[in-house]
Specification:
This protein starts with 8 loop residues before the first helix and ends in a 29-residue tail after the last strand. 28% of the residues lie in helices and 18% in strands. It has 352 residues and is an alpha/beta fold. It is elongated. Helix 3 runs parallel beside helix 4.
């Protein structure tokens, strides 16, 4: 945090800016989530804004338009550094300066090289007091997908699994087993809503024949892309996933030699993409998704798909949904793969 004076209301208004940013979930990718609160010199909220990609107008401009002349001499709380370059819209820094804002409170720099640090510098050059670092961890979490996209040059990977208390994910490898209840299912659809894509393996596709849709009933700016890793192209052309459309596009990653049924699957509407060394080459899959501007992927595959992503060091976040069940026996476990040979090699989570 910088040395600028922090007043008691900064935390309250900064939290509100982050709340407003979250209202854009599912509606901004591949851009960031941004919320803005304009507070008058008298300490009253006079404008609020949330960035929604379809509307183009940025959160700062929406809030400033609401505030009007009451913004002059006031403070703008912005969940992410205001941009200072000409894109689809003029720089938000110019809007803040023209409105007569005297103080900007924003927790973190924008990781986009076109923006990073330049917005804050422009505001300071104009004589505006800039405070950074307040609620930094919370702000990073809000835009974790966007930050990963720019800093790691790949999609944010979120592994989600439903499992019993003894770590089983179904009764058997060939039986579809719903383990979680309606409340958990609603949470899963909220996770799908904030993701650009959802990914499973060939076995899950064959056993469950899932739809993999976002049924949260919340608005989204881009359709949820369904992804299947299917090295032998076993998926049926008549499956829910193969029968894709513009509203629910499907990408099937397969091996270069597995083309026997590719034409039929493509006729059904799905896209078939051969990968060198097959879809187990996760790095190639991730690179292709990055080129498609898919900012985040929710992995809902089985034990081997989960293990492959974990062992490749590609998982950024994990959600395990436990059911009060004990299955036992030879039922498949949550995470397959090689596993850790010692406790020191086990994957240790942080920021729980």
């Amino acid at each position: 945090m910088d040395n600028t004076k922090v007043v008691s209301a900064d935390l309250e208004f900064s939290r509100r800016a982050l709340e407003l940013a979250r209202e854009g979930l599912g509606q901004v990718s591949p851009n960031p989530l941004v919320g803005c609160v304009v507070v008058s010199s008298a300490g009253e909220i006079v404008g609020e804004g949330t960035y929604v990609r379809s509307g183009i107008i940025h959160a700062e401009v929406i809030a400033l338009n609401q505030a009007g002349e009451k913004a002059r001499g006031g403070t703008a709380y912005v969940s992410l550094e205001p941009h200072n370059h000409h894109g689809r819209t003029p720089p938000c820094t110019d809007a803040l300066i023209s409105a007569g804002i005297k103080r900007v409170v924003s927790p973190i720099e924008d990781p986009n090289p076109l923006v990073s640090g330049r917005g804050f510098a422009r505001l300071r050059e104009a004589g505006i007091e800039v405070l950074t670092g307040i609620l930094e961890k919370e702000a990073i979490r809000v835009n974790e997908k966007f930050i990963c996209w720019h800093k790691r040059k790949r999609p944010f990977i979120h592994l989600k699994m439903a499992l019993s208390l003894d770590g089983r994910i179904s009764l058997s490898r060939n039986v579809s087993s719903r383990l979680s209840g309606n409340e958990a299912l609603a949470h899963v659809h909220s996770l799908r809503h904030e993701s650009d894509a959802i990914l499973i393996g060939a076995n899950t596709a064959a056993v469950d024949d899932p739809q993999l849709t976002d049924r949260s009933r919340r608005p989204r700016s881009r359709p949820l892309v369904r992804i299947v890793l299917d090295s032998k192209l076993r998926i049926s052309p008549n499956s829910n996933l193969a029968r894709a459309g513009d509203a629910s596009p499907t990408i099937i990653y397969t091996s270069e030699g597995a083309n026997s049924s590719a034409k039929k699957i493509r006729r059904s509407g799905a896209e078939v993409v051969p990968i060198p060394s097959g879809p187990r080459n996760l790095q190639a899959v991730i690179e292709d998704l990055y080129k498609r501007e898919i900012q985040s992927v929710l992995v809902e595959g089985g034990s081997e798909v989960a293990a492959a992503f974990l062992e490749a060091g590609l998982v950024d976040k994990i959600t395990f949904i436990y059911s009060p069940l004990v299955i036992g026996g030879a039922a498949p476990i949550a995470i397959g793969g090689k596993g850790a040979s010692s406790i020191l090699q086990a994957i240790r989570l942080r920021d729980l």
